[in-house]
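Protocol step 4 of 6: structure prediction from sequence.
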Amino acid sequence: MNSTKRSFDLLASPELVAQSNLSAFMLQCGESDLQALSRRADDDPAWLMQQVFQFCDFRFYKTPQQMLDTSRGIEWARWCIDGTTNIVLNCIDRHRDTAVWERPYLVWEGEDKRAQRSLSYREFDAEVSRLASALLAMGVQRGDCVGLYMPNLPETFIAFFAVMKIGAIVVPLFSGFGPQPLTSRLNDGEVKVVLTADGTWRRGTPGAMKSVLDEALRSVPSVQHVLVLRHLGDALPCSMTPGRDHDWAGAVAGQPTELPTAEMAADDPAVLLYTSGTTGKPKGCVWTHVSFLGSMVTRDMHICADFKASDRFFFMSDMGWMVGAMCACIPSYFGGSLLVAEGTPDFPDTGRFWRLLQDHKVTYLGVAPTLIRGLMRYGDDEVRSFDLSALRITVSGGEAWTEAPWRWFFEHVCKKKLPFLNIVGGTEVGGCNFTGTVHHPLRPGSFGMGGLGVGADIVDDHGQPVAAGQVGELVLRNPNIGFTKSLWRDDERYLDSYWRTLPGIWVHGDFAMRDEDGLIYILGRSDDTIKVSGKRTGPSEIETLLTGTGKVSEAAVIGVPDKLKGSAIVCVCVAMPGVAADTALEQELSAAVVQGMGNSYRPRQVLLVSDLPKTRNMKIMRRVVRAVYQGDSPGDLSSLVNPEAVAELQQRLQG
């Protein structure tokens, strides 16, 4: 594994490094060596955030009197004490009366490319103010939770900011949810108002949303009002409940196009975003008005990952995932622009994703491994036929890479020269645990360093750092401005989930490894670990061998109990188009694992299916695969985008 990674090493050009935001930040901090900056940041995270806020011109109504307070312990760290601000102040209001105000902020394209809209910052702000005024008229007050159950439309982003503009808390919800997961989240947050659409287009078919919400609301007594955007018009009936449901266009008509932004305490809740756990009820993660901007937006994506004001950002995702907030806040904070696309990346044709990049001159592209695995199935020519020369930076996140899709993307999209920066974090940390930068060498799936100031480390079961080449648990040793402020009304679960495994240290739940050159690799969730004959490994190492055959597009490797070895390997794979999913393929895949890992890793079984269970942010859920294989309950499946994959796997095992 290590020798494979050493075989590929790319360095950004000296010009790109010199012109990077990170180089400018180092100059401000008086550090010429990146490792020295990282050590100083870890030693004094409060100093780091003072530098970040200065570098990124963070706006406060009232300047904080103290940057960091850990008097109650690291678990309850508070930031920007006595300061007041608002996410809208920093992402929208800051551009008023500047040249940015008339520039495009949001460009939208529907599933039919003839449906397009563009909003300047001025136009976008006017719509935010109108909707915010309508919410005030409905009785929404500071601290109220407002659900956002919307597809990828301009109004989705307008709503995201409108809720926070008046000091309410936005609760993003995955647009593909059915009634049950909506009910559980709306009840947990005691949501007062829900913003939704009648439906959305998906693969040429109108998909209902309002009727799904109606079913969910039968068991949600807290919701008093529903604001409904008529997006599909006559394509889909939309019933309205008198007294509760309101037409979006009618509600905002006549509302003022200017409205003061609420001055909020820096640590007031702004976003309540639920994680996609598969067991127990989802965890409500709380971002404040300072946390997400101070971590992901400024420190991680601007300083480390080099987003600039001249960039057009595109990461095809859903507002119900962390990336939705990234799409809203990263370009708007710095005066850049955002591309939003409704629908799927491969409809109405398999080249749609690449055409979006070409037509809208995307410069800053975000992808997830699952997206690339899906698109590479259509062949290399799909990419070659489009002009992607506007691209400047590409980033990836969401899950661990296997080498074959990473190399495919780097060769065919990055043309072996564009930076391909890997980032990883989570909803609970509101930013990056590990990050790539243009200052670091680039190898398949690698991260250059830990997030600045977070105290990232890789440790054994006793909390001691492991040596290079050894697999360990990812932990964070420092108070992190991005950390969720407990879990929504559940302090004990917050402590149990992250702080009590190794007291005083945040245990994130990922396995990781450093190579001998200091580059870092995520190997999967630590509860996905496989220990065969005493040796612990992450599933991605074996999955790399399976996808490296070129015969499968996706793989989920799990460990199941074995009396002799401790764990035995089971591989569940999706065959590439045109490849026969038969016994011969199963045998070939098994042989590939043995050849790459040794005979003790010979799979107990290789199963071929048409799809793997995935969350809404397209992470493969190995825990669900393992539970189904062992005949256990797969737990709460509300976070899955394709629960039918679970049923198929169950049928396959029974057969």
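Step 5 (inspection) to follow. The longest strand covers residues 552-562.
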